[in-house]
What we know:
This protein is α/β, with parallel strands linked by helices and about 375 residues long. The protein contains 14 helices and 6 strands. The chain has helices at about 15-20, 35, 45-55, 70-85, 120-130, 180-195, 220-235, 255-260, 275-285, 295-305, 310-320, 320-325, 345-350, 360-370, and strands spanning about 55, 110-115, 170, 200-205, 245-250, 265-270. The strands form 2 sheets. Strands 4-5-2-6 form a 4-stranded parallel beta sheet, sandwiched between helices. Strands 1-3 form a two-stranded antiparallel sheet. Residues about 1-15, about 20-25 and about 130-175 have low confidence and may be disordered.
Amino acid sequence: MFRRSANSRFVPPINQDQEKNNYSSTKETHLDPKYEMCDWLKNIDPKIIELIENEIMDHGQEVHWEDIAGLEFAKATIQEIVIWPMLRPCTMRDLNFRDIFTGLRGPPKGLLLFGPPGTGKTLIVFREKRVKKPKYGKNKPKYGKNEPKYGKNQPECGKNEHKYGKNDPYLVRMNLNMVGEGEKMVRALFGVARVHQPAVIFIDEIDSLLTRRSDGEHESSRRIKTEFLVQLDGTTCSNNDRILVVGATNRPQELDEAARRRLVKRLYIPLPEGCARQQIVENLMNNHAHQLTSSDYDLIREKTNGFSGADMANLCREAALGPIRIIRDIRSINANEVRPINIGDFENALKQIRPSVSINDLQVYVDWNRLYGCGTSVT
């Protein structure tokens, strides 16, 4: 029995009868033979493995590099540590084949994307889904035997286009804080990832899972955190495992030091610069009738300093409603009769939409990046 401190959170006890009922049909669960043969999944309740599989969701959203404005350094790094090694897969059967991405050139097993909210951290991961898509832990992906799987539309990787598998990788949202089962969920998560490797485990808001350990922390939370770090160490120590753990956070300063050390590549995803903000507006306006000129785009870029990508999307959404608000009979008007969006709509929208990130918050990210980040530009 654990003694609760004043700052710890109360966790309701588990009804033993209910727990037995939840897993009473374990013997009736028939797992894929590939799971039964995996040493990493031994002693893991088949129901937990099945739960992970059942929570996998196929996301059909297609994201291209050109859809992500700016962030050239982050894109280049993703290409370097994720896409390039996956274009040259080296499986267990190929241990006698010495590939170029081995030894010191081997890709890191941990990647952290940090920065203010609304800057495209999750969007980058969804772009990776086409070269590796994923989300595990809170989100998980799944890949083919020797290569990542993608959707119907193949991704563009530059001049040397690579053809991927037929099936798109999947995303799963899991609750790793299940009382009494969190540690098993973590082990099952990494075990299933090993079965499907190459795989990417994506944890959104990773600070909520791997926050700094404290004296007032509940024991179950501490055990989950410790198990996750142990499993992450396991992938780091093995040269054969092709698993990448990607975390995204708006609060990097709250990460546990041990987690920070294991997430070797730490990329700062800053607010978009002027050119990137203009590209966001242009991309969003492509699907709507508008009368914006080059000088109008320049004006919007100048007046949106400090806006995040999400702020720019909200601005465009507000401006797009401008022509609708002047319609008297919304029920009978034809869509072709709605006037195009103009710069006046954006000027009115700028009176309603403000930057969501403060200067003080930005300085926190800049300082943390200076101490622990990998830089923001390529020279």
